[in-house]
Write a structure and sequence with these properties.
Elements: H1 2-18, H2 24-39, H3 46-65, H4 70-74, H5 78-88, H6 93-112, E1 121-124, H7 125-148, H8 156-179, E2 185-188, H9 190-206, H10 215-234, H11 240-243, H12 253-278
Antiparallel strand pairs: 1-2
Helix pairs in contact: 1-3, 2-3, 2-5, 2-7, 6-7, 7-8, 9-10
Length: 279
C-alpha cells in the first residue's frame, strides 16, 4: 500500500511538471478536466485516476506539438470524457475507508494537540468524533461541488451560495468544538501530559531521519513540535507558574484573541503563496 501511495505521488509530481508544456488554452481545458476527475474520485482508485490523467496529458502534449488543440483532439464536452473515464475505473472501498480513518485521526490531532499547552487538558471523545465526521462530510461535499462546477463559470449567486455555505459550515464546526460537551470526557494529569509531550518530542526528533518531509509535512511537523515543546515546558514544575500566567491586556484583550487566529492563517497563506510561486 505504501509503495502504491508513493507511486501515486510520483504520478502527480510528473503531471505537475508536464502541464507546464501546455499552452494557455490547452492547459485551461486540461486543468478543468483534472479538477473534475480528482474531485469525483469518491470510492475510486486514486492510482488509476492519476494514471489516466497522465496518459491524457501526454496525448495532449503530442497533439499540441502536431498543431491540434484540446477541443479538437478530445472533443468539446470534457465533462462527458471525464465521466466515461471515471465509470471505467474500479471502486476501491477499502482504500477510501482507510483514507477517511486517517483523515479523522489527523483532524483529531490538529484540533486536540493545542490542548497540551493549556493548564487543564481534556479529551472529549464524543465532541471530537462528531466534529471529525461532520468535517469529513463537509470536505467531500465541497470537493464534489467544486468538481461539478469545473467546466462552467459559476454565477454570482452560485459563488455567494458556496461561500455562505462554507462559512456557515465552518461556524457550525467551531461551535461544536467550543460548546458541545459529551459524557466521554477525560482529564489528563500534568504527569500524563509530561509523558505524552516527551514521547512526542522524541518521535519528532527521530522522524526526519526515517521519513522525508515534504512541504505540507513540514508545516504540520514544525507546528506539532512547537505545541509539544510548549506543553512539555508548561508541565515542568519550575516553569508552570510562568507558562500558565494569564496575559491581561485590559481593554485590548481582544487583540490577543484576534492575533491567535490571524497569525496562523497568515502563516499558512504565506507558505501556500511561496509554494505556488515555485510551481
Amino acid at each position: 500500500m505504501k509503495q502504491r501511495k508513493q507511486e501515486t505521488k510520483r504520478l502527480i509530481d510528473e503531471n505537475n511538471q508536464l502541464r507546464k508544456q501546455l499552452n494557455a488554452e490547452n492547459r485551461h481545458y486540461y486543468e478543468d478536466l483534472l479538477v473534475y476527475m480528482r474531485a469525483h474520485t469518491l470510492l475510486r482508485d486514486d492510482f488509476i485516476v492519476e494514471q489516466n490523467l497522465l496518459a491524457i496529458l501526454q496525448d495532449l502534449i503530442d497533439a499540441q506539438q502536431s498543431g491540434m488543440n484540446a477541443q479538437t483532439y478530445f472533443g468539446k464536452d470534457p465533462e462527458r470524457t471525464g465521466s466515461e473515464m471515471l465509470k471505467a475505473i474500479p471502486r476501491n472501498i477499502a482504500d477510501f475507508a482507510w483514507f477517511n480513518v486517517k483523515l479523522m485521526f489527523l483532524l483529531w490531532f490538529i484540533v486536540w494537540l493545542p490542548q497540551l499547552a493549556v493548564p487543564t487538558t481534556k479529551i472529549d471523545i464524543g465532541n471530537l468524533l462528531i466534529f471529525a465526521v461532520l468535517s469529513i462530510v463537509a470536505i467531500w461535499t465541497v470537493l464534489w461541488i467544486v468538481g461539478s462546477l469545473a467546466f462552467t463559470k459559476p454565477t454570482r449567486i452560485q459563488k455567494v451560495s458556496l461561500y455562505t455555505g462554507g462559512g456557515v459550515t465552518f461556524i457550525i464546526l467551531v461551535a461544536i468544538l467550543i460548546f458541545f460537551k459529551s459524557d466521554w470526557e477525560i482529564t489528563l494529569s500534568s504527569s500524563a501530559i509530561l509523558v505524552i509531550t516527551s514521547l512526542g518530542l522524541l518521535v519528532g526528533i527521530v522522524l526526519p531521519f526515517f521519513h522525508r518531509l515534504t512541504g505540507q509535512d513540514r508545516i504540520l511537523y514544525f507546528w506539532s513540535m512547537f505545541i509539544l515543546l510548549l506543553g512539555f515546558l508548561s508541565r515542568l514544575p519550575f516553569l508552570q507558574r510562568f507558562m500558565h500566567a494569564k496575559i491581561d491586556l485590559g481593554a485590548w484583550q481582544w487583540l490577543l484573541y484576534v492575533g491567535m487566529v490571524v497569525v496562523p492563517v497568515l502563516f499558512v497563506l504565506t507558505v501556500w503563496w511561496i509554494r505556488r510561486r515555485k510551481e
